[in-house]
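Posting for a labmate who doesn't have an account.
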Amino acid sequence: MIETATFLTFLAACIALILAPGPAQLLVISRTLSEGPRTGALTAVGLNIGTLVHSCAAALGLSAILATSALAFSIVKYIGAAYLLYLGIQALRSRPGAASKPTRTAWTHAPLGQAIATGILNPKVAIFFLVFLPQFVDPARGPAFPQFMLLGATMAALDTLYELLLVAVVRRTRTRATASERSVGWRNRISGVTLVALGVRMAFQQR
């Protein structure tokens, strides 16, 4: 498999990339603030399931389509942007009274599915993995696909742990705030504005 020195270099690169503030961490923090630590944790897990999907796509060469086809890149980009804008508008329109009584579906299934979709529908991430992972894959040390998946799973695990740590930190801050409808309304606005901003950012990003 992967040479030890190469893998350690990959770990160092992953840690540096993960610690750099980015839209994924912002999304996890905003969802934790608006809907609680469970939603934040599910968002972190879902985004990194998307990381695994992108790793698999890079191994199979599917990401190359997004890198070479402007039409494919634009289609995926605008679908992802529209999805984020939809989630943001829903958060901005939500009523504090309803937000304080989340249903089982809202807390258990929706955040995970939304995060997976958000992670997968980001063509910039797909191209990043297509460029980043092959630098650490050595065909001379065995089949490329298992190496791609090992690297992707490692990065997903590290990123998930870091984002769960963020959830824990935000949770302590959140529990100190009042549980009034006014504070819930402000948390929904923060989450909604964050999602809308991420959607606009994705819509205007270039290959």
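Reply:
Got it, the structure tokens are right above this. The radius of gyration is 18 Å.
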